[in-house]
Design a protein that fits this description.
heterodimer, A: mainly alpha, Four Helix Bundle (Hemerythrin (Met), subunit A), 8 helices, extended, B: mainly alpha
């Protein structure tokens, strides 16, 4: 086997570093006893994946990864953890009675995926990893290309996505909206009184 | 008008009309006074769906074997570039050897008309060639044109149009029936989301690309998640919504993970490309296909992915369940047929066994567990799981027929299409009547049906007919449907599966008759007469009439289904 060039050494060390950050973070997420620690350990995982995208020349995906996973999802998880339980609680049990079947299922998936990756004839399948990483002049999927593809080739799916977002918004608003009784389904007067009294008593209690 | 946009407008007219209808309903809701109940708006929305059904029916009955002008022009340009720039490089153009139409296409004089299949073959061969020889000019050909891309990403065939008709019909019936039910205060939003869900299902059956398919699937699913938890004060409805959301998202995740594994292996998510590429057996393709099947299995509620169905059906608003258990299931099967027969014909020997196991499990679990149900909605949920099992026999037969190059392929697809139609119609009716009884009796247990004979004679008669049709009793539609389903299994030699199905059908008649016994034999405590209402009455009459008509006069419906199946297979 011929010696690695400097370029190759640099590439492989970047890859190793990113892999270490991503996988190490993932292990800490699973192993942390505190929910809030686990949530924060997601940060290196997401950032590492964003680094991979950048390294592979997919700047757009990297930006989206940072915006959505770090900006939105991670923040949402941290909020959810802090709002629903004692964040400093470290007495969370790390396992329950399903631990053996779950580990077996996870191992099965790992064996299947790693096995598939080993068996697959990558070069014949047209995806040449080495060429993708190391060859100069690799076509870079830049942001403008993504934009053009979205608004030309995928114009119709793009429009479907906008209907999807509208539907999701309407559904969320209806479900989350505070309920007041409609005039045509109004309660009898005494029930409204009782309701108001209860509400007042509750406000008193919580004040 | 620009030729591209006129092509998009004409081929996606039903979808565009439905989106506009949904937006109109939501907009009119804003200007209506807060006090009005919006029942009239729902009825107007329902008849809007009827108009869309007519538009789809036009597409169904029109035959367009010739590719549109735009596509012809671009495809010819593609062939020209190919010939001019590749051949001087000393490379011969390697056409896909499995595609008999291609060499002829390459010699085409410019004025000759291309069929849709020929044009697709050219695009596929061009893209495969580009994959292998990067020297090919990087111009993505017509794909940069929205019109051409719309033709490439969507099937726009009669198979899709047929299911568009079915979904529009289902939305029409469900909206009519929803007038009868309390959907609390958000009637207009209910109608709007139901219409958007219908658009999603239409996109699903029309798509030729797994990514577009996923978009349609999510559009339908997001609307249905919200509709499932529509009754905000009701804990069961909330439970139903949360369960459907969590398990549905998991199924979607499986689907998109499978699609990305397939992309990783073959470099495309387009069914035509996958169909050409899947000749090469690859490990990731098998894992990807398995994950796609998990997604579809959830969508059609086939065992062992059925666990969500009874809880969701029990708690969700009745009109939404009538849509979920029929149109959504039909979309799942239509997509399953298209994806498996176009995308994975080369892996048939792998997926056929899996489908067979799912069919057997669904029939056994659905029918046997239904025996123990006291709640009629749960009973209908398990019966729906069993019906998915019968339908999977036909899907399996499609695979086996394709594997042996048998002439029965068309018959198997026809059987599935016909059964999906009559199952959808009958099940909407059964859920609607169950919902009406639930509303009038404050419960939907078996005993709440007692005395329905005296409370509402027509409703009792309708429910009996629909249940007997679901069970497959001869003069009704269900018998015709099951006959062709089982026949498609028999001609492919699946005797054990068909025997199992036939035996379990007998079991299913037992539990359907348990409901009929309550209706006709047992006296009920509640004797207050039930008023159905004119609007829901129209819907139910139409449903019962169609169920009866298809049963006694199946020929024209069978012919239509055959024509539909042909358009899928000779794509």
């Amino acid at each position: 086997m011929e010696a690695m060039t400097t370029q190759e050494i640099v590439h492989y060390s970047i890859f190793a570093l990113l892999a270490l950050v991503t996988v190490g973070g993932a292990i800490k997420v699973a192993a942390s006893r505190s929910m809030i620690h686990a949530a924060f350990w997601l940060f290196p995982v997401f950032a590492g994946v964003a680094g991979f995208y950048l390294y592979l020349g997919a700047q757009f995906l990297a930006a989206i990864q940072v915006l959505i996973y770090i900006g939105a999802i991670l923040l949402l998880i941290v909020f959810a953890v802090t709002l629903t339980r004692n964040a400093a609680d470290t007495d969370e049990a790390q396992s329950n009675r399903f631990v053996i079947p779950v580990v077996l299922a996870a191992l099965l998936l790992v064996v299947a995926l790693v096995g598939a990756a080993v068996i697959t004839p990558w070069r014949e399948a047209g995806v040449d990893i080495d060429r993708l990483l190391l060859a100069p002049g690799v076509p870079v999927t830049d942001v403008s290309a993504v934009g053009l593809t979205l608004l030309q080739q995928y114009l119709l799916p793009f429009e479907i996505a906008s209907v999807l977002l509208l539907a999701a918004m309407i559904g969320a608003i209806v479900l989350a909206r505070k309920e007041r009784r409609a005039p045509d389904e109004a309660l009898p007067a005494e029930e409204i009184m009782a309701h108001d009294e209860r509400t007042e008593a509750y406000t008193e209690l919580t004040r | 008008m620009n030729v591209e946009y006129s092509y998009i407008l004409t081929s996606f007219l039903p979808e565009i009309a439905l989106v506009v209808l949904g937006l109109l309903v939501l907009a009119i809701d804003l200007v209506l006074p807060a006090r009005s109940t919006r029942r009239t708006l729902t009825i107007v929305a329902a008849f809007g769906c009827l108009v869309v059904m007519v538009l789809s029916a036009q597409q169904w009955l029109a035959s367009t074997p010739i590719a549109p002008d735009l596509v012809q022009r671009e495809t010819r340009a593609m062939v020209q570039i190919w010939q001019q720039q590749i051949e001087p490089l000393g490379q011969s153009v390697q056409a896909d050897p499995t595609d008999p139409s291609l060499p002829r296409v390459m010699q085409l004089p410019a004025e000759m008309a291309l069929t849709n299949a020929e044009a697709r073959a050219v695009v596929r061969a061009y893209q495969q060639q580009r994959h292998l020889t990067p020297q090919l000019p990087p111009r993505e050909m017509g794909l940069a044109h929205p019109g051409f891309a719309a033709w490439w990403l969507f099937a726009n065939d009669q198979f899709a149009a047929a299911f568009k008709v079915l979904f529009a019909l289902a939305a029409f019936l469900v909206l009519l029936l929803s007038v009868r039910f309390p959907v609390e205060r958000y009637r207009a939003e209910f109608a709007g989301l139901l219409i958007f869900a219908t658009v999603g299902l239409m996109v699903m059956v029309n798509s030729m690309d797994l990514v577009v398919l996923f978009l349609g699937l999510e559009l339908a699913a997001v609307c249905l998640y919200a509709l499932a938890s529509w009754h905000k004060g009701d804990a069961r409805s909330q439970e139903s919504g949360v369960k459907y959301l969590l398990l549905g998202s998991l199924a979607s995740a499986f689907f998109i993970y499978g699609a990305s594994l397939l992309f990783m292996q073959y470099g495309s998510t387009h069914l035509t490309m996958l169909g050409g590429a899947a000749m090469r057996l690859a490990p990731f393709a098998l894992i990807g296909l398995l994950m796609l099947l998990i997604g579809f299995g959830f969508k059609v509620a086939a065992a062992p992915l059925h666990l969500w169905a009874p809880d969701v059906y029990q708690g969700a608003p009745t009109s939404m369940v009538a849509f979920l258990s029929t149109a959504s299931k039909a979309a799942g099967f239509a997509v399953l047929l298209r994806v498996l027969s176009l995308g994975f014909p080369a892996l048939t020997d792998r997926w056929v066994l899996l489908i067979g196991v799912m069919a057997a499990l669904s029939m056994v679990v659905g029918n046997l567990v239904a025996l123990h149900q006291n709640n009629v909605k749960r009973l209908l949920a398990y019966s729906g799981i069993a019906q998915a099992g019968y339908l999977l026999i036909a899907v399996m037969a499609v695979g086996l027929a394709g594997l042996h190059h048998s002439s029965h392929l068309e018959a198997a697809v026809t059987a599935a299409v016909l059964y999906l139609f009559l199952y959808t119609i009958a099940n909407i009716g059964a859920f609607a009547i169950a919902g009406i009884v639930q509303q009038e009796s404050a419960g939907v247990e078996m005993r709440d049906f007692a005395g329905l004979r005296t409370r509402a004679p027509l409703l009792a008669f309708g429910m009996t007919l629909l249940l007997l049709s679901l069970g497959g009793i001869p003069p009704l539609a269900g018998f015709v449907g099951k006959w062709f389903l089982f026949l498609s299994g028999v001609v492919e030699g699946q005797y054990i599966l068909v025997l199992l199905g036939a035996a379990l059908s007998v079991v299913s008649i037992y539990y359907y008759l348990l409901v009929v016994k309550q209706i006709y034999v047992l006296p009920g405590e509640n004797t207050a007469p039930i008023r159905v209402g004119a609007v829901a009455g129209i819907g139910l009459t139409l449903i019962v009439f169609l169920t009866f008509l298809i049963g006694v006069f199946p020929r024209p419906f069978l012919d239509l289904a055959t024509q539909t199946a042909q358009s899928l297979l000779h794509f």
